Amino acid sequence: MRHPAADLGRPPDWQAVRRVLVVRADNLGDVVMTTPALRALRRAAPHVRIDLLASPAGAQVAPLIPAVTDVLTVSPSWQQAGPPRAAAELAADEVRLVERIRAGNYDAMVVFTSHSQSPWPVAHVGMLAGIGLRAVHSTEFGGAVATHWVTPPPEGTHQVDRCLHLLAALGVPPAGPELELAVPPTDRAPGGPFAVLAPGGSCPAKRYPPERFAVVARRLAEAGLAVLVTGAPKEAPLVDAVVAAAASPLVAPLGEVTVPELAGVIGAADVVVCNNSGSLHLADAARVPLVVTYAGTEARTEMPPRTTPSAELLGRSVPCSPCRQFDCPYHQECLDLDPAQVASAALRVVREVALP
């Protein structure tokens, strides 16, 4: 239901806007899914400087986004899911954040969120920083904290479409739903056909079991594909476990890479096999064949790949999905997949792209 106080703001005069702060203080993949909206904003207002406020994870992909001029890297309290911090420490962080944003002299703030996130804390920061236009999606009452409070589309809407919906309310027409990254070339790809396998994810509930990923890697190697296994630095033990269990000379760790370097390797791959993670969206943006072991933490309609020409989402339908859980309280039945099925899907999408 639409709140009677929502949807009252008129589209701004974009010709009068000079500096915009786009907020997506979330995971890397969420930032990648904002790229169609950023492209639309850039085309509608080519004179505007667009800066991105992002988390440390999301900020790593900012150099690959053509529309972004600069990035403000923050770890905002409203996005932290760890143990509580002291109130004085949090207050000091927020004061510093207000000062950093005020120094940017932004005319507008556009806050992109998933359906379960509240935009009001960051919109309040924008108000304190003196930003005149503050646009958000919300079904909750937020008073005058936002100047443009837009009723969001239904739950389950793809994240790309959700971002474009907010911009449409601001008078910005869409410029296509395709993800857009400036993927660099790489010199780290092995000779011949190869797969990238990414067994990690932002939380345990999203991760297909590593021992099964190892079987997938071994089967792909038996089919003639070299397999590079990758993960964030904190996922190095997971990567090593998959490589060791695969027990194949064709399966090796990619090693430590930056996000732009990872995007380059992914862009050169014949197929990417991963969980619902940043690697999914990097591969989708690079238009690389893709197989995703897709947990029931989110609805299947919210963030599946749509840019790559060949992709398969694998997962079991379960009554508890979408659960939004970091840790599965049951037995991860949504990811109870036969590794042979995953490997077969990977080989199938490779063949689909290779067909004339």
UniProtKB/TrEMBL annotation:
Q: Which UniProt keywords apply?
A: Glycosyltransferase, Transferase
Question: What Gene3D superfamilies does this protein map onto?
Answer: Glycogen Phosphorylase B
Entry keyword annotation includes Transferase: yes
InterPro entries xref list: Glyco_trans_9, LPS_LOS_Heptosyltrfase
Pfam families, per this entry?
Answer: Glyco_transf_9
| Protein name stated in the entry | Glycosyltransferase family 9 protein
Task: Give a yes or no for keyword Cell membrane in this entry.
Answer: no
* Source organism of the structure: Actinophytocola glycyrrhizae
